[in-house]
């Protein structure tokens, strides 16, 4: 594992796989490479053509954190990775809310040639309940009061749509201490999502400056509520291609993702 220093002094840890044009994999809420092996597995499958960066977003894994949080700090983290990789242009891929961070990074002008996202969890209709309007404030309050478990429970029920039985099962699992450790970062992704889980149409101006090829994916057998959001994004962005791929439960496999990314970058 290697590290770089972001603009505000935060240490960002990452692993690389392969040699070639830089591809940066961005995890969504609660995930990081130690618990999401798909980024590393994808990087190994693309090792002949890409240098794939699997990194710990700030506050997770081996990366540090610096208060106060702002989405701009995470964009600076990506800028530091791109600079380390030679200055770009890079390919960005984002899972879930990590895809929304990637969209913001491209809109901010980072040197990116291609952008791919998998199931950004937008709520643009009434197929599922929207996030509570005070979602981020409740997350912050729970963490500030030393109740990270309450923050995780709120995320699991309000954002991830888990049942009470699923949440109780998580409490009893070996994964529960990991979730408690990264609970403060859940609010980061809440801020990244902003109003895009409100049940209203996506903002027309937030990513209007994006002019690079964009690939928007969802799993063919994913939860039905996770399909309208990606479709709405693809309809919003003039340079976007909408592509259902094999996958379910908000994920796909490296065997699926690697060739899709390769084809996208070679053909776009």
TrEMBL record:
Limits of the AB hydrolase-1 domain: 36-251
Bilayer-spanning residue ranges: none
Gene3D superfamilies: alpha/beta hydrolase (3.40.50.1820)
GO molecular function: catalytic activity
InterPro entries from the UniProt entry: AB_hydrolase, AB_hydrolase_1, AB_hydrolase_fold
Pfam family, one: Abhydrolase_6
Protein name: Pimeloyl-ACP methyl ester carboxylesterase
Natural source organism: Jiangella alkaliphila
